[in-house]
Design brief:
Layout lengths: L8 H6 L1 H4 L5 H9 L2 E5 L5 H11 L3 E5 L24 H12 L4 E5 L8 H5 L4 E4 L4 H14 L3 E7 L2 E7 L7 H4 L12 H4 L3 H20 L8 E6 L4 E6 L30
Parallel strand pairs: 1-2, 1-4, 2-3, 4-5
Antiparallel strand pairs: 5-6, 6-7, 7-8
Helix pairs in contact: 4-5, 4-10
Length: 271
């Protein structure tokens, strides 16, 4: 098949560094151009993820976020500028995505994801990325993706640390396999209480973006059945291997979670 016929001259130049990669090439770039990725959260993690996916040429990027840009966001949410304060994050993000790559289509969903809307929200997407900031929504994203059989990337950050894993429902362990349930209230401080180094969001977000692109192009080994964590203070990375938990509530042998419920849980990391 002559994949070059599906890219115009400007696109061939724009994506030339991908096309030069033996493992990606024209075929891989066309897969990227035809892909659809949903970001739940357009903040600290969503910002670098959206920029790198747009630059890579992901055909359609979905943005789920009901918040407006706040001055305190600007320390790490690099997709938003000072002039965007007060503007809905989905609108601010769309403007930057279109600036870096006009070919990308943006679907804006200016609402909070919850148990009532999330399953419908994630349908129709090739890959989902969790850039949320509470344990409750992280479990909700996991459970919804498992039930809808949607591959996704989990990410979380706090202070100087970050962690991420990729989940392929029915194939790999899920987030609930590793973390059985949200911690009790007040067990984990919020970022507004404990703080977060702004660059941490970029470090983790780019890893999540890379996982999405690897999934789309079928290149390399995904972070499945592995939890990757890092501490930027020491710049040490750690990888912990695990397997599916047969007693997992959503993907185990006798899974009890068939319908979703909103989970009230403390804020755990940066949005």
């Amino acid at each position: 098949m002559n994949f070059e016929m599906d890219l115009n001259e400007e696109q061939i130049e724009r994506y030339s560094r991908h096309i030069l990669l033996q493992d990606v090439g024209l075929e891989g770039q066309i897969k990227i151009n035809e892909s659809k990725v949903l970001l739940i959260g357009a903040g600290g993690l969503g910002a670098p993820i959206a920029m790198y996916l747009a630059a890579a040429g992901v055909g359609t990027i979905g943005l789920v976020d009901a918040d407006n840009v706040d001055l305190s966001n600007l320390q790490r949410q690099i997709i938003h500028f000072t002039e965007d304060i007060g503007v809905p994050k989905v609108d601010s993000s769309e403007k930057k995505i279109k600036s870096i790559n006009p070919d990308v289509s943006v679907v804006k969903i200016k609402e909070f994801a919850d148990a009532q809307n999330i399953r419908e929200m994630i349908r129709g997407w090739d890959f989902v990325i969790d850039g949320t900031d509470t344990f409750g929504i992280k479990f909700l994203v996991n459970d919804a993706c498992v039930l809808e059989k949607k591959p996704f990337s989990h990410g979380g950050i706090l202070r100087f640390a970050g962690q991420t894993m990729t989940v392929l429902p029915n194939t790999s362990a899920c987030y609930r396999c590793v973390f059985l349930k949200p911690p009790p209230a007040n067990a984990v401080p919020t970022c507004s209480q404990a703080g977060v180094l702004g660059a941490i969001a970029g470090m983790l977000g780019t890893i999540q973006a890379a996982e999405a692109l690897k999934f789309i192009t079928e290149v390399g080994d995904l972070l499945t059945d592995r939890l990757l964590s890092f501490d930027a203070k020491t710049m040490k990375f750690r990888e912990v291997a695990f397997s599916k938990n047969p007693e997992c509530g959503v993907c185990g042998e006798n899974a009890s979670i068939k319908e979703l419920e909103d989970i009230v849980a403390p804020v755990c990391d940066l949005k």
